[in-house]
Amino acid sequence: MKMKIAVLPGDGIGPEIIKVALDITKVVCEKFNHDLEYNTALVGACAIDATGNPYPESTHKLCMESDAVLFGAIGSPKYDNDPTAKVRPEQGLLAMRKQLGLYANIRPVTTFPSLIYKSPLRSELIDGADFMCIRELTGGLYFGRPQGRSEDGNTAYDTCVYSKYEIERIVKLAYEYALKRRKKVTVVDKANVLATSRLWREVAKEIALEYPDVETEFLFVDNAAMRMIQWPKDFDVMVTENMFGDILTDEGSVITGSLGMLPSASIGIHTSVFEPIHGSWPQAAGKDIANPLATVLSAAMMLEYAFGLKEEALIIREAVNASLDSCYVTQDIAKDNMPYYKTSEVGKWLIDYIKNK
Ligand code: IPM
Ligand code: MN
């Protein structure tokens, strides 16, 4: 198969973790005889430094012309601590999501047997947890206007906006996934307070009628946050708006054992983007210590979702599981008093595993 991917390493640890994920993708493509073409482009703080724009037009063009985008992470303390900064790296990520029409962010939350003890949650609660959070990604508070400050600077406002069609398409997607899984959808909202949530619930109820084989459950987000760590095995497919999904998926990483393990796929109208859910961890940049597995697993999602390459994705997941079982991992998920390895060493281990498979 001919595959053209755009590689956007971004900031902080982005380049290191992307290198591992890309090297693994190359090896898998060699092994299965796929013709991989990749091009690298700037996004985030490094793009601001180089061009003044966190998502330059040239980067967008490359994404549009590619079959998939492999994305690292963005963000830099240089901008975080400067409330007056006019452009921020995060705007690059948001602009990319908006311009590519990536309205659905799919974040699988699963456990890895050898990491169960790493979770602060009791193992019997999380062992076997396996759900999927589908986060709306191009609406809500992240994009609603007006947003800003009053003239005197003493008041700030964000606006949460959702239209019916935005809710319909994401809720439908959730039901389609549920059909292929354990046939349960949990709609998470705050319909007791927010008008947008009431519209979500209304629309979701209509769509639920089209899927009589799927069980539907409605939860308020505060309750969902609690139930997620109390009874994570109750969930199959969770669907929610942008901000709630952002918060709940970080919470979900506690079930997995580390934020460094959760991949994601963002799909929608144009080219899909595959990225770890964690940030750019600027303090670790260049130190070769970051856990590359969330990005490696994102590459596996890319092969499966964007190219339909199930076997290729599986071999990557197998390699990741084998590295966990062999305790050949970075510090964040290393067992107490066990040796741990550098980002690049873990990458090399995974590549050797795949080559010898
Ligand atoms: C994520 C991140 C982003 C988000 C930030 C970096 C803008 O936290 O992908 O979850 O809030 O969506
Ligand atoms: Mn987040």
Please sum up the structure shown:
The chain has 357 residues and is an alpha/beta fold. The chain has helices at 14-31, 45-51, 57-65, 77-80, 89-99, 123-126, 164-179, 195-209, 221-230, 242-256, 293-307, 310-325, 343-356; strands at 2-10, 35-40, 68-73, 104-110, 130-136, 148-149, 156-157, 184-189, 215-220, 237-240, 263-267, 272-276.
Explain how this protein is built.
The chain has 357 residues and is an alpha/beta fold. It folds into two domains: 1-102 and 260-357, Isopropylmalate Dehydrogenase (3-Layer(aba) Sandwich); 120-256, 3-Layer(aba) Sandwich (Isopropylmalate Dehydrogenase). The chain is built from 13 helices and twelve strands. The chain has helices spanning 14-31, 45-51, 57-65, 77-80, 89-99, 123-126, 164-179, 195-209, 221-230, 242-256, 293-307, 310-325, 343-356; strands spanning 2-10, 35-40, 68-73, 104-110, 130-136, 148-149, 156-157, 184-189, 215-220, 237-240, 263-267, 272-276. The strands form two sheets. The protein has a ten-stranded mixed sheet, sandwiched between helices. Strands 6-7 form a two-stranded antiparallel ribbon. Helix 1 runs parallel beside helix 13 (343-356), helix 11 (293-307) packs antiparallel against helix 12 and helix 12 packs across helix 13. The longest helix has 18 residues, at 14-31. It is globular and about 55 Å long. The model has no long low-confidence stretch (mean pLDDT 96). The protein binds 3-isopropylmalic acid (IPM) and manganese (II) ion (MN).
